Q: What sequence folds into this?
């Protein structure tokens, strides 16, 4: 293993750690804003399930997609180095200013920008089958999917006909489980258990006699489940992106023939790093995600996190490197919109959208500049 590869791995793990505290708000913003957990309890809760995702997401399809952002013929250690450093810079800037940008798209944009500087636009894999086009499509789809699902399940949950509500939940859960392929049993059972917990909670609350206080307490307890599931999706989605980058560097070094042969210690290290990063928190972004987009109650927190978790699990099965930031923000917007459109602070939301749009090109430009600097320095 060369010194440069060791440096890249160390920097990638640092990026993974930064990703954890940068995206901690995604997992804990709603559960903190609804006062179900204190900030310290929330980060411990989220960090634990970020790491537990290591035992659930075992196929690394998202990592494979990230590695395939660039055609293997353009793999170069300097390309990976420039991409990772650019990603760290952009992540720290957006964290400092409290902007919940996507760490995932920062990393992909940096990798792509450095590759373009190295060997032109032909180095980018534009294929829908594991290429950058899949990532670009899900930049648009992830928040929309999260918003639609959160609106749907919120409207179903607040309607008064109990048995119709249960029937719709069962039908929706069944459809989701059918979509999740049975070759991935852990993810299948994860969503099944989530659905069963929700159904049993609704039944228990209904037959005990629903009151406003009892219903609120039920959703506070359910938010522990929904936030844990979303944290699983967050860990499984975001840690894999760093696995993909390290895998690309190892292929460039001729340590492994392709990403599928990545050593077992790399995933373990990446999941540990993102969990430790989440433990450190990200309080600047928590404020934006938890209260500035819309006011969130325990019921709405459960709905937003559940919608986000379903979106992340589904995208992971497709190998799509979606943004957990985009997903939960779209879910929160969907929940707010069920009350009335004016409940969503659209000015804040549009500012977030601009940050999302700029993330990939700015990261790509930073990485390209760094690559040219390293290239001149090495010459």
A:
């Amino acid at each position: 293993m060369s010194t440069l590869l060791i440096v890249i791995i160390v920097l990638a793990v640092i990026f993974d750690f930064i990703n954890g505290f940068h995206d901690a708000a995604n997992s804990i913003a709603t559960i903190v804003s609804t006062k179900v957990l204190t900030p310290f309890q929330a980060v411990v809760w989220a960090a634990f399930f970020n790491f537990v995702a290591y035992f659930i997401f075992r196929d690394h399809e998202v990592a494979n997609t990230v590695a395939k952002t660039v055609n293997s013929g353009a793999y170069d250690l300097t390309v990976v180095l420039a991409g990772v450093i650019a990603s760290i810079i952009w992540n720290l800037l957006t964290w400092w200013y409290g902007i919940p940008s996507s760490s995932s798209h920062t990393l992909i944009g940096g990798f792509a920008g450095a590759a373009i500087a190295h060997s032109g636009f032909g180095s980018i894999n534009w294929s829908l089958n594991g290429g950058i086009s899949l990532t670009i499509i899900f930049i648009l789809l992830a928040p929309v999917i999260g918003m639609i699902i959160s609106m749907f399940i919120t409207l179903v949950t607040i309607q008064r006909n109990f048995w119709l509500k249960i029937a719709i939940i069962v039908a929706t859960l069944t459809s989701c489980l059918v979509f999740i392929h049975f070759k991935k049993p852990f993810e299948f059972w994860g969503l099944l258990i989530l659905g069963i917990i929700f159904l049993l909670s609704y039944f228990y609350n209904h037959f005990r006699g629903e009151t406003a206080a009892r219903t609120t307490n039920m959703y506070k307890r359910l938010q522990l489940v929904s936030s844990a599931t979303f944290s699983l999706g967050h860990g499984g989605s975001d840690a894999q992106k760093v696995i993909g980058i390290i895998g690309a560097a190892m292929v460039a070094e001729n340590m492994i023939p392709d990403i599928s042969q990545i050593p077992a210690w790399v995933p373990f290290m990446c999941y540990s790093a993102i969990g430790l990063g989440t433990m450190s928190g990200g309080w600047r972004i928590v404020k934006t995600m938890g209260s500035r987009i819309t006011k969130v109650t325990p019921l709405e927190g459960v709905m937003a996190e559940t919608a986000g978790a379903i979106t992340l699990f589904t995208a992971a099965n497709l190998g799509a490197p979606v943004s957990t930031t985009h997903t939960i923000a779209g879910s929160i917007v969907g929940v707010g919109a069920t009350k009335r459109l004016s409940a969503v602070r659209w000015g804040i939301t549009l500012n977030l959208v601009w940050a999302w749009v700029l993330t990939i090109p700015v990261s790509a430009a930073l990485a390209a500049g760094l690559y040219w600097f390293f290239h001149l320095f090495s010459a």
Notes: Residues 94 and 101 are 7 Å apart (CA to CA). The two ends are 22 Å apart (CA to CA). Residues 287-294 have pLDDT under 50 and may be disordered. The longest helix spans residues 212-252.
